Amino acid sequence: MPVSVVVGTQWGDEGKAKIIDLLAESHQIVARYQGGHNAGHTVVVGKEKYALQLVPSGVFYAHVTPVIGNGVVVDLPTLFKEIDTLESRGVTCSRLKVSSLAHLIFPWHQAHDAISESSLGENKIGTTLKGIGPAYADKSRRVGIRAGDVRDATRFKQLVRDRAVAEQKILTALGGENLNVSEIVDNFAALGERLKPYVSDTVNFLHDALDRDENLLLEGAQATFLDIDHGTYPFVTSSNPIAGGACAGTGLGPRDITRIVGIAKAYTTRVGSGPFPSELLGELGDKIVDIGREFGTVTGRRRRPGWLDLVMLRHAVRLNSLTEIALTKLDILDTFTTVRVCVGYELNGKELAGYPDDPQLLGQVIPKYVDLKGWNKSVSAVRNYSDLPEQAKALIELVEKHVGVPVTMIGVGPERNECVVRK
Ligand code: GDP
Ligand code: IMO
Ligand code: MG
Fold it and tell me: Does the beta carbon of 105 sit less than 6 angstroms from any atom of ligand 2?
């Protein structure tokens, strides 16, 4: 199993980091392939809880080299703050490699994110305001500045100054804030110097590791239905979280990938705007949010709760070529009398054949549910599949039957070892 991908199958926060941390034990490299500090990846090791935004979730193992791949957009102040916090807690980050081809985020990206959101008014995306979309837009416009550019300090400074001056004109025209150009140039000159030792040719590094038969784990951020192409556009992020994005975002080829693990919560959550067929607006939703502590790691926003949606999950199996599913946060449903699972959509009295290609329709469909009996006991101590309550097994078997791939891991708590791994 040399190259594994971990991908979110819903709208993010499925518990990807917890599963990556678990799998990282048997891997030599963990590489992030897209997104930026919009991600909030929580790893719990014993009593210690870490919230990561840019540093790959394999960093807690001394034998793992964490890599920020070329598909990631990197906010340097956040990266260094994260490194400093981790190191102050005894987690060494000196092994970290940042792709020379990864694009950098600058203050004007955040300014554009804010202007774009406020101009959309009620139709806003509900972004994390981290400048992710504008940074990827600059990459596509071919005016981005990349990590490798810091290698030549004089040129890097000039690139930052030129872009800052050009962006100032655009921001002024849009009625946005004034950039302090010389302060930005000086700050980024210092940040660039600090980045230098981390900048690497990660593409050849990953291929060389494959040649040595090492195991690589590719870490997705966000999720399938936040994908810029396949998600609920325009209420998406600006990258390709789907497994296909792992190739573009690391430089590995499709044939290198052998295992693709889709992470799904036993229910669903979504942060920000956009359609959500199985959304729960009442007390049951509040119960999920309370027990599951469903508040964003990055922005603190309340996550919108809903039932598990197997129409979406089946589509995620297709889009990502999933070889297996990890079902997380099963324990959050411990006290529910009934556990509902969406197994189909109806539109205008007719059943849809599958996930619709128009996100507008997703806002109009009526979900069809199967009601399962709850198990009404704690599953947190369970480590063997056979010890799970029959009702919980019924949920897992329904998932497998409906989407056609096995559920190989079941999360029963936030900690590293709180997981049922099926052999
Ligand atoms: P990610 O963005 O997909 O990595 O997920 P987040 O870290 O944003 O959110 C998942 C949250 O659920 C974190 O607080 C995790 O510690 C927690 N978590 C992950 N798996 C489980 C699980 O199986 N049970 C419980 N109770 N919590 C979990
Ligand atoms: P992880 O990796 C949940 C959502 C935002 C917004 C939309 C676009 O922790 O699962 P952006 O700032 O990316 O332009 O915002 O995407 N979003 C996430 N939601 N988990 C995330 O990351 C997210 N990253 C972005 O809330 O709706
Ligand atoms: Mg998260």
Answer: no
Radius of gyration for the chain, computed over Cα atoms and rounded to the nearest angstrom: 21
263-421 adopts what CATH topology? Adenylosuccinate Synthetase; Chain A, domain 3 (3.90.170)
Q: What ligand has the least distance to the C-alpha of 39?
A: 2
Q: Whose CA is nearest to atom 19 of ligand 1?
A: 15
Q: What is the dihedral of CA 298, 302, 304, 310, to 10 degrees?
A: 50
What spacing in Å lies between the alpha carbon of 61 and ligand 3's midpoint? 20
Q: Does residue 297 surpass a pLDDT of 90?
A: no
59 C-alpha vs ligand 1 centroid, how far in Å?
Answer: 17
| CATH architecture of the domain with range 103-196 | Orthogonal Bundle (1.10)
pLDDT, tens digit (0-9, with 9 covering 90-100), for 86-131: 999 999 999 999 999 999 999 999 999 999 999 999 999 999 999 9
Task: Give CA–CA dist 215/27, Å, rounded.
Answer: 5
Kindly state if the Cβ of 263 falls inside 6 Å of ligand 2: no
pLDDT at 53 over 90: yes
